[in-house]
Amino acid sequence: MDRDGSNGEGDPGGWWGNGARTLLAGSAGAPDRRWVFVSGTSGFDAERRMMAGDVEEQARQTLRNIRRTLRRSEADLSDVVRMRVYLADAADFPRVQPVLAEEFRDRPPVGTTMVCPLADPRVRIEIEVTARC
User: What radius of gyration do the chain's Cα atoms show?
Assistant: First the structure.
């Protein structure tokens, strides 16, 4: 991992949290369903090597990062069924909610928003998702 949190290939992995794990369910009830779990992802822009200070732009970049990760598993945001949003400050909720509502207006996933300290003080939002594809 590079010092800026990217893996050197323009992909914010590791510390910035943009990892996906694909799991093939083995239960008898859903033997052919494929799930993609995307861990806590921030709004770090690997191409520009920066983190926006504005929480709305961090939310938008976070969703772009998640979309890029999902596409590697042949999924997209429309496949998201569960979303967890972590905010560093509860006061940011009214600014973030419209960004999420716009992106998921056609098929909103079930979700939870939590306020908690985040590992890096520049990070104001992290999102993790579960997608079915």
Answer: 15
Instruction: Tell me how far apart the alpha carbons of residues 55 and 63 are, in angstroms, rounded to a whole number.
Output: 12
Give the pTM. 0.77
pLDDT in tens, 62-86: 999 999 999 988 899 999 999 999 9
**Measuring CA to CA, how many Å separate 130 from each of 11, 18, 20, 53, 74?**
19, 13, 9, 27, 13
Spatial strand order of the sheet with 20-24 comes to 20-24, 34-41, 125-132, 80-87, 110-115
d(CA 92, CA 52): 14
Structure tokens at 127: 């999102």
